[in-house]
Amino acid sequence: MELITIILSTLLGVVGTGGVVVDTLAEAALRDQIAGAESLQVRIDNVPNYQLINGRIEKTRIAARGIETRQLPGLRIDSIDLETDAVDVDLARLQQGELVLDEPAQVALRLRLKASDLNVFLQSPLVQGWLDSLQFSLPGAGGDREQNRYGLANPSLEFLEGDRFRIVVDLEDRVADENIAIAVDLGLRVLNGHRLALVDPKITVDGEDTPPQLLESFVQGAQERLTLRLLEESGITARILNFKVRDNELDIAIFARIEPTSPFLTRQNATASFRSCPPCALGWPRLP
């Protein structure tokens, strides 16, 4: 969801400039906020156009291919298509560096992710750092030494037919200097638009099926976290409109409503986008 608010804050950072080049300004400002993009197109529809000066964007469409974000270095997003309903911002507050919506913003987002790109990301230092931060022990073990004995490495992901996934990771025994392969096969089904339910999960350790109690514990823990309703505490209502795996690609469509009180908005540096350099390159004066 932070990706959506980054895009919104960047777009709204140029509404005060107005004029026929606002599409170009928005595209340049977006490029300044991401690590890279193979292609990026922005279209802002406003009739009448003076609404931009009042802080209102009637509709925005963004189509991007080959996106790399600064927040998740190493992750390539194959494509992003985003469309907003009318977005109204407090322009006076924006000019002071605060992103404040006058009314909730509604966004439709479609993401496509390739397994090959995700596997490159899984091998990145960022992901390995996440894995290294995990501390756990196997059943029956105890003590600080045992908690630091095991680690995870070499994760990989495979898309299967029927909206199923296979995740493989090595369990490293740092004392015995051994690696044990853990494979998780599971399907995902969307329930009520907000929850992802695990379908027929299977876990094997070194080729052997795990005990039922361990599988049950894994499923229960995952089910509690796989819901977009966790975002509602942060002022975001989100629903999954489409979730498909095909041709080694994951296709997700999401609708989101962002309340003016959402802390996700306050995390974005509106000043940075509003005073960014792209407007200067197009002949607009830099804000003091």
Helix content: 25-40%
Average predicted local confidence, pLDDT: 80
Low-pLDDT stretches: 269-288
Strand order of the largest sheet: 1-3-4-6-13-12
Secondary-structure content class: alpha+beta
Protein name: DUF2993 domain-containing protein
Organism: Shackletoniella antarctica
Describe, in plain words, how this protein is organized in 3D.
The longest helix has 14 residues, at 212-225. Helices cover 27% and strands 39% of the residues. The chain contains 10 helices and 13 strands. 19% of the residues are buried.
Outline of the structure:
The chain is of the alpha+beta class and 288 residues long.
Q: What's the layout of helices and strands?
A:
Elements: H1 2-12, H2 22-33, E1 36-45, E2 56-57, E3 59-68, E4 76-84, E5 87-88, H3 91-95, E6 105-114, H4 115-122, H5 125-133, H6 143-147, E7 150-160, E8 164-173, E9 178-191, E10 195-205, E11 208-209, H7 212-225, E12 236-246, E13 249-258, H8 263-267, H9 270-274, H10 278-281
Antiparallel strand pairs: 1-3, 2-5, 3-4, 4-6, 6-13, 7-8, 8-9, 9-10, 10-11, 12-13
Helix pairs in contact: 1-2
Protein name: DUF2993 domain-containing protein
Pfam families: LmeA
InterPro entries: DUF2993 (IPR021373)
